[in-house]
Specification:
This protein has 280 residues and is α/β, with parallel strands linked by helices. A hairpin with a 5-residue loop joins β12 and β13. The longest helix is centred in the last third of the chain and has 19 residues.
């Protein structure tokens, strides 16, 4: 099975959509110049903004989004598979999709994925996130067939839900994308562990393109974009600054790893105990 070179783009997206798109384009071009035929950008590539009113005023519906059209043109110009990890796409006056797009070398959108799991949390250090107040969650897992292997699509918080990754792997996904904007707090604690665990338990390559640094909307993201092989080894890793990482992907390694540790094939159904009832 033929191998290929993959790249993950790390960004520090702000409030200016045009500036973010220009920054993404420059990094995608850099990745293509280094031989990458598949390039992944992070979650919220085109804008990172927690202010509801300001975000809604800055984004467009999919059919009208000039950023998406520019990325389609870029993919066709470079002849690459360009995976925009996610963009904020307006669904109506009050709701938004956190949507990933896989664009083929012909510039045509091949797959879309709306982030399923919403990050609703109070972190205890003053940071609070309520994605479900603005974003409409997706309801379907998505895979896409590249020339070299099958790709599973996820976004950020999805990484904590191992059942999604197992389902993607059981459909034959040998590489799973994790575009993200992990917070500094949770990233320091869990990012490396989660990415390596998802690779090991599914026998898949994990490619994670992250946001990193202090953003204009006040949030702090962890960075550390990574490419992990099916054995759990980190092939490439960024730090916090914008840039790219690349690694050569051998699709046969996923097959070899799954044959060596056949957790997908050895899975068995089981009955679960009833949930505990706590007396008031």
């Amino acid at each position: 099975m033929q191998g290929f070179r993959a790249a993950a783009v790390q960004m520090r997206s702000g409030l200016d959509v045009a500036a973010n798109v220009a920054a993404a384009e420059a990094l995608v071009r850099q990745a293509a110049a280094q031989g990458a035929s598949y390039v992944l950008t992070p979650e919220m590539t085109t804008i990172l903004d927690r202010d509801r009113k300001r975000l809604l005023a800055s984004i467009s519906a999919e059919d009208d989004d000039p950023s998406l059209k520019r990325f389609q043109t870029l993919a066709a110009e470079l002849g690459i598979y360009l995976h925009i990890g996610s963009m904020a796409i307006k669904l109506d006056a009050d709701s938004v999709a956190n949507r990933a797009f896989l664009i083929g070398p012909d510039g045509v959108i091949q797959s879309r994925y709306d982030k399923i799991h919403m990050y609703d949390v109070d972190l205890g250090n003053g940071e609070s996130y309520r994605e479900s107040r603005l974003y409409r969650p997706g309801g379907a897992a998505v895979v896409a067939d590249l020339p070299w292997l099958r790709l599973g699509l996820t976004v950020c918080y999805d990484i904590r839900f191992s059942q999604l990754y197992r389902a993607l792997a059981k459909t034959g996904a040998a590489m799973i994308a994790v575009p993200a904007a992990f917070t500094q707090t949770t990233g320091e604690a869990h990012w490396h562990i989660l990415l390596r665990a998802r690779a090991i338990e599914t026998g898949s390559y994990i490619i994670a393109a992250a946001q990193g640094g202090h953003h204009e909307d006040g949030r702090e993201t962890f960075g550390h974009s990574m490419i992990v092989d099916p054995w759990g080894r980190i092939l490439a890793e960024a730090e916090r600054e914008p840039g790219i990482i690349v690694a050569d992907i051998d699709p046969a390694m996923s097959e070899t790893t799954r044959a060596r540790i056949p957790v997908l094939a050895n899975e068995r159904s089981f009955s679960a105990p009833a949930a505990a009832t706590i007396e008031a």
